[in-house]
Amino acid sequence: MPQRLRFHCCSTADTAVPHEPRLQIEGLAAGTNVKLLNEQIRKFNPKIVSVANDKVLTELKEALSGWDGKMPELVCGEQGLIDVAKCVPSLLPLC
To answer: What pLDDT is recorded for position 8?
Structure first.
């Protein structure tokens, strides 16, 4: 069974997963890089994704429109970070 993780920075997900195929990304928290986050959502299929604010959330929803993959829960702001942190019991230290 894959180890479940959450990441608080997108670049860490790209670094960790290729080196450990048993890892499963459960949640991502990012700032405003919609292009990178869009790619990572499609690649890792997280359950929950948080972005900086409502404006970025709207941009991300537009970027994901038409995608036929499983849509993660999309949240934003401080509460969004809290929601991502709660999505998986702490298995490893967060970056």
So the answer is: 47
C-beta separation of 25 from 46 below 8 A? yes
* Residue 16, SS3 per DSSP: helix
Residue 21: domain span: 3-86
Question: What separation in angstroms does the CA of 64 have from each of 21, 56, 90?
Answer: 25, 12, 28
| Residues 25/94, Cβ–Cβ less than 8 Å | no
Q: Give pTM, 2 decimals.
A: 0.76
Which has more confidence, 53 or 86? 53
Query: What's the structural domain count of the chain?
Result: 1
